[in-house]
């Protein structure tokens, strides 16, 4: 299964991603975590994005896209993944479409966690207060002023993705203001039972396909549109895939 979690900072993407990872055996690909790791290791990318991140702005598309392109090639991402924090702009979404198409895979769903901005600010302020009380280190961009900037970036650059994915017919909207277990249940309900297949498979051997088609023109014409229907195998594959997933730890929370 390949999912995107879409929602402003503090919407609960990380919390829900953790649960989905445990339940479906997917890997969580968080561009925020990857970029923070680059900053911590002071790599050339890290040095380039450090200030942007601290101000609450978005890092350049080309940097983020190349990080993701490299990451989804890794063997652990083959079974499926959850993208958390990516794409965040329309050009990133278009780049992701190209990446997936090239590999002959498709998104199963884009889950939008819809939340109220004022409540979000309170949520993050509480999170900061709790972490400070526990003596835990804060992220350098975890403060109300930078959060406001992150919300502006979301509204201006990321929110257009809602319409983008609605057009692709993969958008599922969930009320992110509900308690964590309820959000989790709504996400489970919104997930497709059959893994998605891309509209067209990658053409690896165009010549061979053309020859095969030429050999059976009548059969193909007789079957017409129905010939592209693929029996019940995707459902079986989904059932088999689900049965390998570990039990959910719903209610578990890293960051709200
Ligand atoms: P949030 O709590 O805002 O969801 P993340 O951990 O996803 O935060 O990201 C933290 C910061 O990393 C963002 O404010 C931004 O500067 C940068 N970042 C993460 N993902 C992207 C992306 N896809 N495009 C551009 N910048 C990104």
- How far apart lie the N and C ends? 24 Å
Strand order of the largest sheet: 2-3-1-4-5
User: Which ions, cofactors or small ligands are bound in this entry?
Assistant: adenosine-5'-diphosphate
Task: Give the overall average pLDDT.
Answer: 80
Strand content: 5-15%
Structural class: alpha/beta
Shape summary: globular
Number of alpha- plus pi-helical segments: 12
Oligomeric state, counting identical vs distinct chains? single chain
**Rg from C-alpha positions?**
20 Å
Number of strands: 5
Can you put this structure into words, describing what you see?
With 256 residues, the protein is an alpha/beta fold. Helix content is 54%, strand content 9%. The protein has twelve helices and five strands. Strands 2-3-1-4-5 form a five-stranded parallel β-sheet, with helices on both faces. The radius of gyration is 20 Å and the shape is globular. Mean pLDDT is 80; it is low at 202-256.
Short description:
Helices cover 54% and strands 9% of the residues.
List the topology elements.
Layout: E1 2-6, H1 13-24, E2 27-30, H2 31-40, H3 44-55, H4 61-71, E3 81-84, H5 90-102, E4 109-114, H6 117-133, H7 144-158, H8 160-167, E5 171-175, H9 180-190, H10 206-215, H11 217-223, H12 233-243
Parallel strand pairs: 1-3, 1-4, 2-3, 4-5
Quickly list its features.
256 residues, binds adenosine-5'-diphosphate, alpha/beta, five-stranded parallel sheet, disordered C terminus
């Amino acid at each position: 299964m390949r999912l995107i979690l879409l929602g402003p900072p503090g919407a609960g993407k990380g919390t829900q991603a953790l649960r989905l990872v445990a339940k479906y055996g997917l890997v969580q690909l968080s561009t925020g975590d990857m970029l923070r790791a680059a900053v911590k290791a002071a790599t050339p990318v890290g040095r380039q994005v450090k200030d942007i991140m601290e101000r609450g702005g978005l890092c350049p598309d080309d940097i983020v896209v190349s990080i993701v392109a490299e990451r989804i090639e890794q063997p652990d991402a083959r079974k499926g993944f959850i993208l958390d924090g990516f794409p965040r702009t329309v050009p990133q979404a278009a780049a992701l479409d190209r990446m997936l198409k090239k590999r002959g895979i498709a998104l199963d769903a884009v889950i939008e966690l819809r939340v109220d901005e004022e409540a979000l600010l309170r949520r993050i302020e509480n999170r900061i207060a709790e972490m400070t009380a526990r003596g835990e280190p804060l992220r350098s961009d975890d403060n109300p002023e930078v959060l406001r900037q992150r919300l502006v970036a979301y509204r201006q650059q990321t929110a257009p993705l809602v319409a983008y994915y609605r057009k692709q017919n993969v958008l599922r909207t969930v009320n992110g203001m509900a308690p964590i277990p309820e959000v989790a249940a709504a996400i489970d309900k919104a997930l497709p039972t059959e893994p998605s297949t891309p509209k067209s498979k990658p053409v690896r051997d165009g010549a061979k396909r053309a020859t095969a088609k030429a050999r059976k023109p009548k059969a193909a014409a007789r079957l017409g549109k129905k010939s592209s229907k693929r029996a019940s195998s995707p459902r079986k594959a989904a059932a088999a895939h689900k049965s390998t997933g570990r039990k959910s730890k719903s209610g578990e929370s890293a960051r709200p």
